[in-house]
């Protein structure tokens, strides 16, 4: 859409070598965890957790940026998604994650960013609802971005990929 390409792919967020910054589905203390956080910290090495220590804790909806350490990406943006049904309003907080991450990347002059499906694993956010929130937040934030040229959504399963593709279509966002 406009001059920004939106991609939706099945894959591992820690294996996106052509992307400037990847987004971590973090915990409040920015510690290595399971799922996305486990994959990112595992690939980045212990230097990432060390850099994170000074930035923690973060609040639901907040996003902070670090270097990529052993990752193929120059940067990581750590977002704390809402625990579904606990951190309220969940939709607003999840939208904040996507909006804040896009703004942070754009302010740093970065051109490409990859997101996982924040909050849809351990934090229990229903996939279809999360996909609609993500698509809406991207659509609303896109017109304000000056540097970002590529936004990639990286889904772990074929089912998750289909849900995100449908949400992008429903939002009127282009996809590939
Ligand atoms: N690449 C892409 N997607 C993945 C990957 C991966 N390597 N691994 C899992 N997913 P989660 P959350 C999918 O639990 O719900 C952690 O312990 C997964 O199938 O990683 O925000 C943190 O430390 C799901 O759809 O993130 C926090 O405590 C989605 O990514 C907590 O979990 C998000 O799953 C954060 O929970």
UniProtKB/TrEMBL annotation:
InterPro entries referenced in this protein's UniProt entry, alphabetically: Macro_dom, Macro_dom-like
Superkingdom: Bacteria
Domain Macro: 1-172
Any Pfam family matching the protein: Macro
Name of the protein in its database record: O-acetyl-ADP-ribose deacetylase (Regulator of RNase III)
């Amino acid at each position: 859409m406009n001059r920004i390409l939106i991609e939706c792919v099945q894959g591992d967020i820690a294996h996106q070598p052509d992307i400037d910054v990847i987004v971590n589905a973090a915990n409040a203390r920015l510690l290595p965890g399971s799922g996305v956080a486990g994959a990112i910290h595992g690939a980045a090495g212990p230097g990432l957790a060390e850099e994170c220590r000074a930035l923690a804790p973060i609040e639901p909806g907040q996003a902070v940026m670090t270097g990529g350490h052993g990752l193929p990406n120059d940067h990581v943006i750590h977002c704390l998604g809402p625990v579904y049904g606990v951190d309220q309003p969940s939709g607003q907080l999840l939208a904040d994650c996507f909006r804040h991450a896009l703004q942070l990347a754009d302010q740093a002059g970065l051109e490409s960013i990859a997101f996982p499906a924040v909050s849809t694993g351990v934090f229990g956010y229903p996939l279809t609802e999360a996909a609609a929130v993500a698509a809406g937040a991207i659509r609303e934030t896109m017109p304000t971005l000056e540097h970002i040229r590529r936004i990639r959504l990286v889904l772990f399963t074929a089912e998750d990929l289909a849900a995100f593709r449908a949400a992008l279509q429903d939002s009127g966002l282009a996809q590939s």
